[in-house]
Amino acid sequence: MIRRPSLCLVGFAALWIGAGCATVPLDSALRHFHDGELEAADAALNTLPEGRDAVRHLMERGMIRHVRRDYDGSAADLARAIRLEEELETHSVSKAGASMLVNDSMLSFRGLPCERTLLHSFQARNYLARGQWEGAGVEARNIIRLQEKLDGFADDAYSRYLAGLCLSLAGDESAAAFQYQIAASLLPETPMDPATGRFSPATPAGNADPSRFTGSELVCLVDLSGSAGAAGADLYAGGRHLGSARILTDTETLRALHREKMASRRMAKAVARIAVKESIAAVVAAHNEDLGDMVRFLLFAVETPDERTWRTLPRSLAVARVQCPPGLDSFDVVFTGWHGDRRITVKGPFARQGGIFVALCRDYP
Amino acid sequence: MSRQSACWKGFLALLAIAMLGSGCRAFRASVREVDVATAKPMDTGYDYSDLRWLGNSVGNDVSSWKTLDQGGRKPILVVMGIQNRTTRHIDTKAITDTIRTVVINNGKADFVNESQRDTLLKEQGYQLANCTPETRVAIGRQLGARYMLTGSLVELKKEEPRQVRVSKAEEVFYQLTVEITDLQTGLIAWTAQKERARGASKPVIGW
Q: Among residues of chain B, what percentage have pLDDT more than 90?
């Protein structure tokens, strides 16, 4: 009888440790990332753990490498994250059982449905940055596949727009137009031409009228990370204002909508889990009241919400689509926000398909 | 207590006998030769059996195209790529490699060397994937080819609707369209479509 309580306590201690965050390298990487130390952030995730947090680590390192412009490394990480996430479509009975005893962080991290779509969006960007249009087209079809089986979850205008851009660059104009059309319907306040994806002017100082596009075009995918405080971005070349970036998706709002949709399911599970924990504690307490109290304390101490999320995802995803000055080898992006304006220079060479140049930038500390 | 302990010992002994009896085969790494002609697919994904079937059947169809028989004089073809329009990153060059191998082995046509083609494309500031149809025709003519082989691979997927279930079924359909363009007239001189569908189900619940 003495051995059983000891075994129980050892078991619960193991569960407690297991339920806690074994994410020291990830925390360190995120700290470096938000301090602007990209190499240190990448190095902190040099060795990735297997198991239930593997997808999250790959998403974070994939994003760190994307911001570092290591597009090959980022593509490899995101491809692995996509493959592992697809394998998680098969529900694990053992992990589900553990999650009923501890908390939802015992389940493998898959990300919210919108994060799974954005995984393909950022993978598409890795292909765009390298001028691999066919690969970008493959990812665009994956974005569409996921968006078409959302089952009531909110659609993502940025991913739709990006899918349109990728398909257009891969030579599938009619499929591209359909995606632009969906993006336009999701963003009634952002007028755009559904046939080409070009934005109409919002202000007198805004983008050029689409009808006046005659030469080459510059499409700049602008990420606004919430931490840097930028709320908008303007593009300049040779002292001339080329146009403004349009925010197509606020990732925090999108994630909040997806969490809200999942809330009822999670609530039902939490209620069931609490009932299971209370039953276990009651059974133990029937044999030994003190031990029952101890078990109850331990079981409810690990009753914490699963707050795992893709932390390096930018706050806002924007697109600037402007007329490209001839011989463009660099341009400036001025981020406007609460902390004042900040200017960065984006240097070429830029990926080019026909008359469309593609560039990526992020307001980064 | 002693009865319980005897039960445990018996169970462990049975387990040990079962493991020894099976030679612990399940716990060992193993390697075996697979016959590529009869190998069964593991899932609905595009695999080497699709590559072989699509490449060989199109290659044989091209070889039996009457226009290629020009009284002992073999026409020159240039491969300008098959566009991947699926949701998977498929190496479509492997399909054209198979088609080319079959046609050459059947003695029906000669092909422009692909490194020569890529050099010319690079000189003119293009990659094969970035070329417009007009550029492909122009490059093909400059390479001295009479015909140009292009195509696309399309995938359509059908999944079971959401419902209470223990396994999830899906069907994937692949369609390969290959076209041969006469570079003198700019018209499509020959085309073929090959279709392949596969269904599979995977468990929704696992260990």
A: 47
Of B87, B89, B205, the CB nearest to A145: B87
Closest CA to A123 of A111, A109, A137, A104: A137
Residues B92, B85: Cα–Cα separation, whole Å: 10
Matching residue, tokens 């007239």: B185
Interface A-B, measured as beta-carbon pairs within 8 A, has a size of: 47
CA dihedral sign of residues B41, B42, B47, B48 = negative
In the numeric block, the tokens 């660099």 are attached to: A330
The CB density around residue B86, as the number of other CB atoms within 10 Å, is 22
For the record, the structure tokens of A15 come out as: 């569960």
Q: Kindly report whether the global pTM for this prediction surpasses the value 0.95.
A: no
Residues of B in contact with A134 (CB under 8 A): 83-84, 129
Question: How does pLDDT run across B81-127, given as a tens digit for each residue?
Answer: 999 999 999 999 999 999 999 999 999 999 999 888 888 888 887 77
pLDDT of residue B134: 83
**Is the per-residue pLDDT at B171 higher than 80?**
yes
Interface probe for B, chosen from A108, A116, A138 (most Cβ of B below 10 Å), is A138
3-state class of B32 per DSSP?
coil
Of B86, B157, B206, the CB nearest to A138: B86
Tell me if A328 sits within 8 A of A220, measured CB to CB. Answer: no
Neighbours of B200 (CB within 10 A): 15
